[in-house]
Amino acid sequence: MNIENTKAQMRKGVLEFCILSVLRESEAYTSEILDTLKSAKLLVVEGTVYPLLTRLKNDGLLTYRWEESTSGPPRKYYGLTEIGKTFLNELNGTWTELSDAVNIITTQKTKS
């Protein structure tokens, strides 16, 4: 079994939740989202994030707007829609339950 593949699958499973969480307080463009994820040690590449942002937008969870940049081409800023905020709140509850359950299981002493 390949441990790196398993680790990648675990990260991929929470990436959507993390991206929505990054956008909880304010809009951000893709580079800012990537920087936030990387600073939290969640290793992702642009090729993974762009399609996910498009899917989240198509699902009605995100909106975007273009803004001119003084240092290059215009930037696409993403933000949460009202549906996205509701969805994120639901995910937060599920994450807490899942995290608590995993912590209980992984810290249990084995029965002899």
TrEMBL record:
Superkingdom field: Bacteria
InterPro entries (UniProt xref): ArsR-like_HTH (IPR011991), Metal_resp_DNA-bind_regulator (IPR052509), Tscrpt_reg_PadR_N (IPR005149), WH-like_DNA-bd_sf (IPR036388), WH_DNA-bd_sf (IPR036390)
Gene3D superfamilies: Winged helix-like DNA-binding domain superfamily/Winged helix DNA-binding domain
Pfam families recorded: PadR
Xref: SUPFAM superfamilies: Winged helix' DNA-binding domain
Domain annotation Transcription regulator PadR N-terminal: ranges: 19-89
TM spans (from-to): none
UniProt GO BP: regulation of DNA-templated transcription
Protein name: PadR family transcriptional regulator
Annotated source species: Flavobacterium silvaticum
Source taxonomy: Bacteria, Pseudomonadati, Bacteroidota, Flavobacteriia, Flavobacteriales
